[in-house]
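Feature request, filed as a ticket because there's no other form

It would be nice if the structure record came with a short human-readable summary line next to the tokens. Right now we just get the raw output. Example of a typical job, pasted below so the devs can see what we mean:
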Amino acid sequence: MKFMITWAFPTGNIPEAAERFLAGEAAPEAGVKLLGRWHNVDCSGGFVLYETDDAVALYKDAAKWGDLLELTTVAVIEDGDAAPVLAERFKK
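Raw output as currently delivered:
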């Protein structure tokens, strides 16, 4: 499954988060594939897209950052998977 995790910086946490990021601590846990990471240009946060079937690995990742970042994790699907469901549900 694919998971999108968004993060935001509470006031004052950017320097410590940057230090961890630059030290390589943003690498995904074993069993988690990083599909991409994007940073908001205003330094307010960003999002990462992972693929995994291991929810515990995502939890471990959140535990590494939960003291510095506000995190939200959502399972996501692509258009190609959503379209048939919507067509079936809402066809006239």
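Something like this underneath would help us a lot:
Residues 2-90 form a domain with the Alpha-Beta Plaits fold (CATH 3.30.70).
The mean pLDDT is 95.
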